[in-house]
Amino acid sequence: MTDAPPRMTKQRAAVLTVLKQGGFRSAQDWHDRLRHDGSTAGLATVYRALQALTDTGDVDTVLTETGETLYRLCEAREEHHHHLRCRACGAAEDIDMPSIEGWAASVGAEHGYSRIDHTVELTGVCSDCAKAGR
After folding, report:
1. pTM score
2. Do 4 and 67 belong to one domain?
3. Does residue 128 share a domain with residue 63?
4. What CA–CA distance (Å, rounded) separates 134 from 125?
5. Are 28 and 42 members of one domain?
6. How confident is the model at residue 36 (pLDDT cuts 50, 70, 90)?
């Protein structure tokens, strides 16, 4: 028995639509945007939709320094990648870091580990936010 992909519900479709606004945002922020657009989806529904979309690879997540998870519609990339994210506005760039990939595999092998996984996130302030004094 194989796992079927999650069903595309009306609420999940609404979450996908609002995610097209871009940037990394919290589930609460996405919920607020949905409500502003007239959706009646509850916060718990938004969390479930974001988790399902994360599980299918349609949504990227990052963890803030306070431990909050932020979500963003994933660009169509199959390979592992990292993010450079603005702490002020949530804008993000996908970045390739081949030297980090090699380093992580090397450190794992040195200690007898395989199937190494890792997360690298760079944060800063984008030029627009810096100009605005944020």
Report:
1. 0.65
2. yes
3. no
4. 8
5. yes
6. very high
